[in-house]
Amino acid sequence: MQQVVHRAQENNKAVKVTVFKKVENQRKITGKVSEISDTGFTLINQKTGMVTKLDYDNVQQVKEKGMSTGWKIALVTVVGFVIVVVIATRPWRSE
Questions:
Q1: Rounded to an integer, what distance in angstroms lies between the CA atom of residue 41 and that of residue 52?
Q2: 62 within 8 A of 1, measured Cβ to Cβ
């Protein structure tokens, strides 16, 4: 979990955090990591600018937002397949 938080901060990516106990009436909190300590980290909501301090003890899961590597590979594979099919089914003229 701490590795995901550090990686997200280094790459300036947002994270989606699921907590055990509700924080401000929410179980899922999204934002960018601004500060990291030994006991927790601070998120800044990109839309509202609201700052939320979270303890690692209350955090159930941390996920980086954005497309996963698996989805990126699948997308590139599908696009490549479509290009091959289009080229293979195109009628060729020889003049």
A1: 9
A2: yes
**Which amino acid would we find at residue 81?**
F
- Spans of all domains in the chain: 2-66
Over its length of 95 residues, how does the chain's per-residue pLDDT go in tens digits?
Answer: 788 888 888 888 889 998 888 877 888 889 999 999 999 999 999 889 999 999 999 999 998 887 677 888 999 999 999 999 988 888 876 66
Which listed CATH number (3.90.950.10, 2.50.20.10, 3.40.50.2300, 2.30.30.100) goes with 2-66? 2.30.30.100
